[in-house]
């Protein structure tokens, strides 16, 4: 077994790709009216008050969501 110096480079490239994919995903989430901070898509927003998961929904009587 020989150590391949390529491994570190590939890993770094993969990390960069993942970072890019996450950034793209967040940008799309925000562009479509969602919240990238809590990864809530626009159609996943609270049905009662329209807030994302960042909010505490203190004044919201949202139905309990159980899966
Ligand atoms: Zn709510
Ligand atoms: Zn949020």
Give me the secondary-structure topology.
Blueprint: H1 6-31
The protein binds zinc ion (2 copies).
One zinc ion (ZN) is lined by residues 35, 37-38, 40, 52-54.
* Rg from Cα: 19 Å
Counted beta strands? 0
Percent of sequence in beta strands: under 5%
Number of domains: 1
Q: What is the SS-derived class?
A: mainly alpha
**What is the CA–CA distance across the termini?**
48 Å
Bound molecules: zinc ion
Shape: elongated
What is the succession of H and E elements?
Answer: H
Describe the largest sheet.
Answer: none
Average pLDDT confidence is: 85
Number of helices: 1
- Helical coverage, percent range: 25-40%
List the uncertain runs.
none
What can you tell me about this protein's structure?
3% of the residues are buried. This protein is 39% helix and 0% strand. It has one domain (1-67). The mean pLDDT is 85. It starts with 5 loop residues before the first helix and ends in a 36-residue tail after the last helix. With 67 residues, it is mostly helical. The protein is elongated. It has one helix spanning 6-31. Residues 35, 37-38, 40, 52-54 line the site of one zinc ion.
Spell out the key features of this protein:
binds zinc ion; mainly alpha; 67 residues; 0% strand
Quick summary:
Helix content is 39%, strand content 0%. It is an all-alpha fold and 67 residues long. The longest helix has 26 residues, at 6-31.
